[in-house]
Design brief:
2 copies of one chain form a homodimer.
Chain A lengths: L6 E6 L4 E15 L4 E7 L4 E5 L2 E5 L3 H15 L5 E6 L4 H6 L7 E5 L3 H10 L12 E4 L3 H7 L5 E7 L13 H10 E10 L7 H13 L5 E7 L7 E8 L9 H5 L10 H7 L4 H7 L2
Parallel strand pairs in A: 6-7, 6-9, 7-8, 9-10
Antiparallel strand pairs in A: 1-2, 2-3, 3-4, 4-5, 10-12, 11-12
Chain lengths: 284, 284
């Protein structure tokens, strides 16, 4: 049955699919110098933020993405205190990071302040840690910030970016990853959203190569569901300066002092398991 | 951007989302006494079978579903020889079952022969085991067949059905599950597709109660991606007459004499892991 005007649709180039949500009304529509930011009130997904026509977050299921961008990397690092989030303007990843009592400082660097303003209005629950004294929100160029960061000054970098087209593209470059590698302390870790394992396997392969070129050692991918993104199946790729990423602070994850909705220690193990086609393509 | 006439769309009631595929042309369109069966040639998903407006299988990603309906249950049973598939008319699950050399007989009972005829024409790769001497294809009422099956005559039952509305609804009833329980040998196992963990948690909770009422013991859910179904995240629920479903023939799974694209022994473990919200709702 065709979709009438009561639907928002995002078409996925390359794979020829589309995801749509039935909308009640548009509640936000502004343009920044960088992007077009819209928020819809939907029938089943709560609020839905759309940037340049691409779905970003929904009330219903953003917990899947935000928990998986924050907790696996933070429980893999032995003692994460200094964290930077590149992108992440909706502030949902920041909130998850600051659930970790050991984190002393988390800087979120998103070039577009409009995304955070829209989130404060329509996703206030994602912004509830914005006033935490450990949080620093900067609205400047993340690449430049990373290039100017003091060497060895970060424990964890989370690249919570849009797709590798448009403003997000440079965040997938070897140059940017090299700057990240330099900014990390010796036991530092990076995690970056890495698109759909089914639709974008070539991108993930390229990312592994670029992490290697940038001086990272072990590289591993986390798999998790993501209903509003192409194929509904998503990934984030972890890389470390030294050591294995297979092990994590499992006892700490089992006794974590905060609630989650998707992540737990068993999910951490499960998310690292490679489907057979991925294992054959990437190795491991 | 709105979708023009070059798209097939399925709307998902309840959750207010829709999944669409850009189509080249419709290549099959017939009605049986039971259902309306269509096949589209799509831009990115290969062929796409649609029954009564709901997506069933696509060339691109059916391996996810068919492997997860067949291999976990077969590697959990100690020695599966006699298998029945209720539904499954596209024959993809049958093909996966017959990859197991120990299976002596597999009966596929789908009420609608038209589904198999459409699959033979447009998904020939899924039908490549239909001529296996161990395969028996019946086009009759699966509930009646199960009620008349000899007690204790089956090792594994796979309920590969449509959604629990329309013809598939009765397959989710306690009456049908009781007939399955009776037809299974003492160490027999059943697996049934159980919809989206995110959109249909209440259905899965009801299934657990019905498996219990039907006399099954341990009940566990497998989670896996399913791009063309609502939310892109799907599940199948396993139940056994006796014993635990946590353990499986892991050594056999690691040395399986056939290729897979998604399933492997580690994926088997990972698929059984409960996300935190599911664990809180269902227990375990």
């Amino acid at each position: 049955m065709p979709l009438d005007d009561n639907w928002f649709s995002e078409q996925h180039a390359g794979i020829g699919s589309a995801w749509s949500a039935r909308i009640k009304k548009k509640v936000f529509d502004q343009r920044s110098p960088y992007q077009h930011v819209e928020v819809y009130d939907t029938e089943g997904f709560g609020k839905l933020m759309v940037i340049d026509g691409c779905t970003m977050v929904s009330t219903l299921e953003n917990f899947l993405y935000h928990e998986m961008m924050a907790h696996p990397v933070l429980f893999t690092h032995p003692d994460p205190r200094r964290v930077a989030i590149i992108g992440g303007g909706d502030c949902g990843t920041l909130r998850e990071v600051l659930r970790h009592p050991g984190v002393e400082h988390c800087t979120q660097i998103d070039i577009d302040e409009l995304v955070t303003r829209a989130s404060e209005l329509h996703f206030p629950e994602l912004c509830e840690a914005n006033d935490d004294p450990r949080a620093e929100l900067l609205f400047i160029d993340g690449i430049q910030w990373m290039q100017q960061a003091e060497a060895g000054s970060l424990d964890v970098i989370i690249v919570d970016s849009t797709d590798p087209v448009g403003p997000g593209e440079v965040l997938f470059s070897t140059e940017f990853l090299t700057a990240c590698q330099r900014a990390l302390a010796p036991d530092g870790l990076i995690v970056q959203q890495s698109e759909s394992p089914l639709a974008h396997l070539d991108l993930i392969q390229a990312m592994y190569a670029r992490f290697g070129s940038a001086g990272f050692g072990d590289t591993r991918t986390l798999f998790f569901p993501q209903p509003i993104y192409p194929t509904g199946w998503w990934s984030a790729t972890l890389a470390g300066r030294h050591g294995s990423l297979q092990h994590f602070r499992e006892a700490d994850a089992r006794s974590k002092p905060f609630e989650t909705r998707y992540y737990n220690a068993d999910i951490h193990h499960a998310a690292l398991v490679q489907p057979e086609f991925f294992r054959k393509a990437i190795g491991g």
